[in-house]
Write a structure and sequence with these properties.
Elements lengths: L1 H36 L2 E13 L5 E13 L2 E3 L4 E6 L2 E6 L4 E7 L4 E9 L4 E12 L1
Antiparallel strand pairs: 1-2, 1-8, 2-3, 3-4, 4-5, 5-6, 6-7, 7-8
């Protein structure tokens, strides 16, 4: 007897609160989708140019670099907040070194510029290439 009454109460509760329950499920799911989209790792291969200012010239080499984004933040030497708009990821920083990173999500092309001081002098590094989601 009590089992039937409890089942009726639970059934009535879900009927009355189904819209609210559905709303919270949608909100929770959409928040997870946003976090998942901005948590990604890209493996990029391309041409890197490294120059130590005042030295004999540039060093060019083909490199493969991983860029890890967690909740929209580039995790590297110093974590950089990035702007995710219009199929572009743009990260800019002037903390410790100057960094400008752009990934075009339409064609997966990357452009990364870093300039700073490594203790042995001022350096500039440019990287351009193609990326794949890992």
């Amino acid at each position: 007897m009590y089992a039937r009454i409890n089942a009726m109460i639970v059934n009535l509760f879900f009927k009355q609160n189904s819209k609210i329950l559905f709303f919270f499920i949608v909100i929770f799911y959409s928040c997870n989708l946003i976090a998942i989209q901005k948590t990604v790792t890209y493996k990029c291969t391309g041409l890197s140019e490294f120059e130590l200012i005042g030295s004999s010239g540039k060093k060019e080499e083909v490199k493969s670099i991983e860029y890890k984004f967690i909740e929209g933040v580039l995790h590297d030497l110093n974590n950089i907040e990035c702007n995710w708009e219009n199929n572009m990821i743009k990260c800019e920083s002037n903390f410790l070194n100057i960094r400008n990173l752009t990934i075009n999500l339409k064609n997966n092309e990357i452009s990364d510029y870093i300039s700073g001081n490594k203790g042995f002098g001022v350096y500039v590094e440019n990287f351009k290439g193609k990326c794949k989601k890992k």
